[in-house]
Design a protein that fits this description.
- The structure is a single chain.
- This protein is an alpha/beta fold and about 400 residues long.
- Strands 3-2-1-4-5-6 form a six-stranded parallel beta sheet, sandwiched between helices.
- Strand 5, helix 12 and strand 6 form a beta-alpha-beta unit.
- The protein is elongated.
């Protein structure tokens, strides 16, 4: 090969080498190629927003407060009610019953009014002395009806005798009068007496249904819905019975306990009421009501065992009594372990119990209570004032008042 040709080839090789070196340097200066990288999901920790605070929270644990135990709601086992002036006003009820009574007496030929019977009832209790309070409403009223009928028959007989003898009634001799008295007693039929009394009692129940406080049925429905297994009963010193009020109260009540059901207990109570100041024992009627409840509750438990085939373990239950009278309703039931709701209703309800005591006390015309009995009742009221668990002014408040007792609020 010629020298010039060799030199030319060497120069070409050097130029190529120089270019290759420059290209390599440029490639090294470029960023590395992109690669697919798995991106972790965003953390739910607060460190995304405040990493320092989250770190501190992670390292320093705040002391935890003990959780409050939820209040245990007790079960309503027994709910008892007074009736007169608690579920209806007694004044218009007795007025209606007395109207029927007067009409029926006139139909039988005895023009007598309810005032005549009330006056006779008071005389009967006064004549009985200390034993007057022991007599039941039925006993007193039946005797009053008979006495007034005999009095009317005696007046007629004496007028007939005076006319026969052509003289004045005042001039009739003692033997004639004694004979007329015996005749008048025999002329009055006990069947008629009982028939008139029964008519009065029936109208008393019919009128109670007509005058039932407007919210009573709704309140009972709410209570039954909230406490479907509770037993509802009546405890009364009157002659009413909710089981006979078939259009209103009967569907909600399981039993009725009246003062007239236990003559010995009633006698002992009124004896103590006359002998001591505010120490009369009212527990007898409430103990009887609780015994009745236990019978009904046990029957219900047996039925559940048969239907559900389980043990139906006994649970702790609460007894609540509702009434308008401090002494009889609150004091009597509380002494037997019941929780109490006092129905101190607004004036529009027409209650009479609270109007019978205090400086401006006014006794209703139908009351036959003596002054001594009222004085002792006042002492019992004072003693029972601190036993009220809840006080309501409207019947619509009753379901919630019962629930407050059960929850301890």
């Amino acid at each position: 090969m010629k020298l010039p040709t060799c030199l030319a080839l060497a120069a070409l090789a050097a130029a190529l080498a120089h270019r290759a070196e420059g290209f390599s340097l440029r490639m090294q200066s470029l960023p590395p190629p992109l690669r697919s990288v798995a991106i972790p999901p965003p953390s739910r920790s607060k460190s995304i927003v405040a990493p320092r605070r989250a770190t501190a929270a992670a390292t320093v644990e705040e002391p935890s407060l003990p959780a409050e135990a939820p209040k245990k709601t007790q079960t309503l086992g027994l709910l008892t009610f007074d009736l007169d002036d608690s579920l209806y006003p007694i004044e218009p009820v007795l007025h209606d019953a007395n109207e029927v009574f007067s009409k029926l007496m006139s139909d039988y030929g005895y023009p007598l009014s309810s005032e005549d019977i009330n006056a006779a009832s008071k005389r009967i209790r006064e004549e009985a002395g200390d034993r007057g309070g022991w007599l039941s409403h039925t006993e007193v009223r039946l005797e009053a009806i008979r006495r007034e009928m005999e009095r009317k028959m005696l007046e007629r007989k004496l007028e007939e005798c005076a006319e026969d003898w052509a003289t004045e009634v005042e001039s009739l001799t003692a033997p004639v009068r004694e004979s007329a008295v015996k005749w008048a007693k025999s002329a009055v039929s006990q069947t008629v007496v009982e028939s008139i009394y029964s008519a009065w009692e029936r109208e008393r129940h019919h009128s109670a249904e007509r005058h039932l406080y407007p919210e009573v049925v709704e309140a009972l429905q709410q209570i039954k819905e909230r406490h479907p297994d509770c037993v509802i009963g009546a405890v009364t010193d009157g002659k009413a019975n909710p089981m006979l009020m078939v259009f209103t109260l009967a569907p909600y009540f399981d039993f009725c306990m009246s003062w007239e059901d236990d003559a010995s207990g009633r006698t002992a109570f009124f004896q103590e009421l006359g002998d001591s100041k505010g120490n009369a024992d009212l527990q007898w009627i409430y103990r009887a009501a609780y015994d009745k409840y236990e019978e009904i509750a046990e029957t219900k438990r047996d039925m559940r065992r048969c239907l559900l085939d389980d043990s139906c373990e006994d649970e702790e239950t609460v007894w609540v009594h509702v009434g308008d009278d401090l002494a009889y309703d609150v004091g009597g039931s509380a002494s037997c372990g019941a929780k109490t709701v006092l129905l101190d209703l607004d004036e529009e309800y027409g209650q009479t119990a609270k109007a019978r005591f205090g400086p401006e006390a006014k006794m209703p015309s139908w009351s036959t209570a003596s002054r001594e009995e009222l004085a002792n009742r006042q002492a019992m009221n004072d003693a029972a004032a601190g036993m009220v668990d809840r006080r309501v002014s409207r019947m619509t408040m009753l379901p919630d008042a019962i629930d407050e007792i059960l929850t301890g609020e």
